[in-house]
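Components:
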Amino acid sequence: MSEREIRYLPTGFQAAGIAAGIKERGSDRLDLGLLLADEAYPAACLFTKNALQGAHIPVCREHLKRSGGLVRAILVNAGNANCATGAEGIDDAFACAEKVAEEIGCPTEQVLPMSTGVIGARLPLDRILDAIPGLVHRAATNGADDFARAILTTDTRPKIVATRYLDGDLQITGIAKGSGMIHPDMATMLAFLLTDARLVEPLDTLRSVADQSFHCLSVDGDTSPNDSVVLWGSGTGSCPPDRLTRPLTRAAQELCQLIASDGEGASRTILIEVSGAASDDEARQAAATIATSPLVKTAIAGRDPNWGRIVSAVGRSGVSVDLAKASLNIGTARLFENGRPLPENEAAASKWLNSEPDHSYPDILCDLGVGDGLCRYWTCDLTADYVRINADYRS
Amino acid sequence: MSEREIRYLPTGFQAAGIAAGIKERGSDRLDLGLLLADEAYPAACLFTKNALQGAHIPVCREHLKRSGGLVRAILVNAGNANCATGAEGIDDAFACAEKVAEEIGCPTEQVLPMSTGVIGARLPLDRILDAIPGLVHRAATNGADDFARAILTTDTRPKIVATRYLDGDLQITGIAKGSGMIHPDMATMLAFLLTDARLVEPLDTLRSVADQSFHCLSVDGDTSPNDSVVLWGSGTGSCPPDRLTRPLTRAAQELCQLIASDGEGASRTILIEVSGAASDDEARQAAATIATSPLVKTAIAGRDPNWGRIVSAVGRSGVSVDLAKASLNIGTARLFENGRPLPENEAAASKWLNSEPDHSYPDILCDLGVGDGLCRYWTCDLTADYVRINADYRS
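Structure:
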């Protein structure tokens, strides 16, 4: 697959990005992005479960309801979250959608506005409204890359997964942003899964995909009030609906890996697999506790196979574990078994951590010795750079 | 109160510390400590709720049961947690207690052994047993400082609170260690509250004290498998039992503040007060979520009054909050009210964060606008030094 092909969108979609001066007035940094469909296509969204919600969320919910889930365009600004901005913030989000609808000629409710960035400041509405005509004009089938750049905040690189499955019968392009404030129990970032497939029950499909991908991803355990995951299908392709979930899940998992590897300050992704849990939910709870433990994450930053911290994190996670039957690997090196350490394997574990991530084989593999529950979970290490980025983000 | 007076123990207690070569063979770093009572006095202990438990915990539980809660001596080693060491670890902990009992001439069950340090390595038992006679010999009424030094791991300074209350009718000396892996839902560190008061229901008293102190303390959200809080009273003083809880709580809160201010890599303590919650438990849950948010903690490290991250943490904490009535202060500066930011007060908030901690007035003051639930919670910021300390601890 050529580099060029990766940048394309599924049939029926266009995209664009523009510098509207939201991140920095007068700068040429892209900060306003558009996804544009040839017609209004079915879409489903998952939004944050945070009690604090960005202004775009009630607007999107209302629009999806009024449009019957048919979406023509999605407008995303980065640099300002339009969150904790009261009723005025909601008016601003609506005004953005209205302007896009006017430019492309569709009902306002077919446009979803989204925002990401700093909390608590009003959107620079004039600059956004001024930029929208030019943005719509730029929309093109090869605009995914500009869009992916326009939605970034502290990310260091755009995140695009674009591929064809089932001998070309299925096109999926995933685009995401997210580097900090990434944690499950919500749409933990902005992520867009575009496909040429016909979506029958898009929300069910998206929930099932997110359960094995975006809900198993944590950078720092913080849940953002804004972020949102979208599944959107043009129906121009020929993939049977019942063959869709698995390829979509694979694409979403690849996005998770891209996000974890670009986690703020991250020097290494960590793929965690918890098995032998009483249930899949307990496996996820144990994995999430490991993934959010600062002591585990700093140990990985130091490439220290400190299994004691991992077992300790599992111990406090509140799930059933039989320590006499439990086991723990770092990569292929078994470090703990039958309640006892295996120090002779620490050198191999250390070597694993010092090697390039494999991305398919778990870096931390923990069997709880209780049942059949399983979860794969993506995270990254915690470095001094994370602290630097977040201590200085606003000031 | 003179500096000298602070170092003394309540009547009936002695203490000592010695270098046994546990942290580093042949070094003169104190790493074995002893608290010794003139007679066996009533004591109560709270232990970690981690499913992984240090070997000393089952031994202590068994000894307290067999002795009817009467304790003559507590032996603490630092540098090795004797945790995840299987049945042999339990034998080792027992052997340490047995040796102390032999030296001082008391039943073994009146001796509690405790350990803190690296997980997963056997204790250097010979070195500890060899050091015990000299340690017992050194025990003295002015030995609190040596003891406090001997139990440290990554701490940078000993933590002692010693004072007299009620016109001298009540002596309390608190000694603690703990710098990382500090989080509630357990005895989150090693902490010893010694008093000359007569304890009637020591476990009830200790639970009530811990609920307002050690269970409201987090450095990094990680819960250690080893740590333990002890309340121990000689009964030689004249304080009425019903006047005991408040001064003990005050002493324990001072220890919490000392631990937070010595949190690994911490550059600033953070006192959080959550009010207006549906219940005290919900207040604690919201406070704990703020206290463990890497984004909040790094913002404080950068002295950035980033109230959006705090409100966002409250939003994801799972407690009832009425954002239209909620408010948020940093120090005396109100930053959020009625669902809207008050940017005009950010300069005052920034000044508060850049000033020396007050320790009595909350740094973060959040009212949820729902009920009367209240909690005070101690934590510290998250700095690049925390990462450095924990990336390099073992390797």
